Amino acid sequence: MKILLKGGRIVDPSQGLDQAADLLLEDGKVVALAPDLAVEDARVLPCEGLIVCPGLIDLHVHFREPGEEWKETIATGSLAAVAGGFTAVACMPNTRPPNDNAEVTRYILKKAQEAGLCRVWPVACITKGQKGEQLTEFGELKEAGAVAVSDDGRPVPEAAVMRLALEYAKNFDLPVISHAEELSLSRGGHVNEGLASARLGLRGIPAQGEAIAIFREVMLAELTGSPVHIAHVSTRSGVEIIRRAKEAGLSVTAETAPHYFSLTEEATFGYHTNAKVNPPLRSEEDRRAIEEALRDGTIDAIATDHAPHSPLEKFCEFERAAFGLIGLETALPLALHLVERGIISLPRLVELLSCAPARILKLPGGSLREGSPADVTVFDPEARWVVTEEELHSKSKNSPFLGWEMRGRAVYTIVGGRVVFSRRELLS
Amino acid sequence: MEFFHRHILDISAFTPEDISYILNTAENLKEILSRPIPKVPTLRGKLVAHLFFEPSTRTRLSFERAAKTLSADVFNLTARMSSVEKGETLLDTVLNLKAMGADLFVIRHPMAGAPHFIARATETRVINAGDGFHAHPTQALLDMLTVREKKGTLSGLKVAIIGDIRHSRVAHSNICGFRKMGSEVFVSGPATMLPPEREALGARVCYRLEEALKDADVVMALRVQKERHGRELFPSLREYAREFGLNAQKLALAREDCLLMHPGPINWGVELHPELENDPRSVILEQVTNGVAVRMALLVLLLGGGA
Prior knowledge:
The structure holds 2 protein chains of 2 kinds. Chain A has one domain: Metal-dependent hydrolases (TIM Barrel, Alpha-Beta Barrel). Chain A has 13 helices and 18 strands. In chain A, strand 6 (56-61), helix 1 (74-83) and strand 7 (86-91) form a beta-alpha-beta unit. In chain A, 61% of the residues are buried. Chain A is of the alpha/beta class. Chain B is of the alpha/beta class. Chain B folds into 2 domains: 11-135 and 288-303, CATH 3.40.50.1370; 137-284, Rossmann fold (3-Layer(aba) Sandwich). Chain B contains 10 helices and 9 strands. In chain B, the strands form 2 sheets. A 5-stranded parallel beta sheet of chain B has the order 7-6-5-8-9. Chain B has a 4-stranded parallel beta sheet with strand order 2-1-3-4, with helices on both faces. In chain B, strand 3, helix 4 (114-122) and strand 4 form a beta-alpha-beta unit. The longest helix of chain B is centred in the C-terminal third of the chain and has 20 residues, at 284-303. The radius of gyration of chain B is 19 Å and the shape is globular. Chain B starts with 15 loop residues before the first helix and ends with a helix.
């Protein structure tokens, strides 16, 4: 089966490419990339006016299966992913039961295969039951298909345990992803400490708690010589620690989420539970620092931290409401808004949403070189649309961007040479 | 002037004119309370539901007194002895009361924003009777009524609030209200309980108690709320009383004609020295009477127009 993407603008920072060209996919691989390719027996996807880039990869999603299927399943999450232009997602292990053993890993992969949309890469727990005590069986988990380890949703409270994880991960070349949060400072908090906590009369979560935790991870990376990846960076102080660590040559990478560069704590005013997320939405100063870190490379990747919750968890008192918001279907236009405002270039956007995530997870993808997997995202950077519950494919609708007018949207999402999502009628 | 607000959630929603209008209404209605038969038919047939998810004496009974004086019917629901103990959600609880015909909810809840959520979810009128650390607008209104009665004005005064400012909904609403009316608010107490200046809602934060008390027109002591923090924020009650408790000597720093206030309940010997119990500057019980008048005013303003 051949697919020819005709007339698009190819943006592939992995080979320094930004030009009009055609792209030919065959048998799940990229086979040719050149202007005016003529192929007789290929299905042609017209891409005039569209951007063609390596498939977007989301390093950080919560698909809630097994255990909380009323919020999202691997099938509905996968659909949201491909509708948002993502060809692969790494799903975090805080399911019920958590992904701390090979059986759960295999279950997730089986469900992903049944869904047959995007690639789903399970992230396994660092510690059994995410309790922060005993390491999980990294070896067997990796063999079962886990691509990284993380106790996401909660930090590993003890530095000594995190040290062991970073050391032991070397045997298996498993990336370690840290949810950096100093619990003794954040416990009981619901919103950013500062304007939001003062105004809403809620306990706050101080920005410096994130920085303290990031500093610990950076020091452990130095101690162990293992790389560490910091999830969902939300603060100026956190960014500064990472920037200095990188300057010192330490092996640290970091991601942020679209809501941290698109919103501030003001989104919570009025007790809007869809804006309740951990880490919390921060100050304008933090938001700007995140933008700058995306621009200067301190932050390597954009990940959504897609965290679906139903009205049961969100239509209630703010303090009772669950943390988390969905992001798979709004990430691309929010990132494009950074391009529109001149903060980052289009190639940098592709780097942040595709190349870097593949590199951090040490997985194939993030490139349109010949021989690469035929994972391709085609998007219309000009398409205007309004975020409504009906437009979203995720089972949950807990987006703080409902009602926003967005610019930019995936048109074709291709995984392994198969068009798994299209907003246009397919021509053969 | 007309009153357009559907809910009383937070002082910050009001203009100074709104506040004056509420206080004027309260002042007019207060007279009813001193009649031989303190009852008027104004709200006959209206059903006011009092939902108290936290212990309360003054606020709960004050609302009940206000509603009954105006001839409204009342539901009194406390978290204990209700289906809340069986796990019924707040939303379901109020929807059920609405289905029985409740015209207005008065809500006291340990979670900030709970009354706002109910206002949004039920489209019924809501009065916030205290939500978490957030706000206690009716307390601030009755405090302002008391000060206005005694001082003849709410502008140009120095108001000192002493105690756990960070975790006090009374402090938050009073800071907001007194500042709106043109007074300056100074706060002091243990620094572990003081907000940083940028989070103090416009109050001046004083780490020296004397600075807050000096020449104050109004001195308000807050209750030490041991139930609200996860851990001790000061070393001992003894040290609190010594350093931050008000006594005659410290109160002498304030203006001679200052008003001594406290929202209650009082821990005598902690935030207030027992020697102040019968002090002529104290208006603590007048605050309580004014509380009924303010709540009558709010009920009339929200329910009275035949709405």
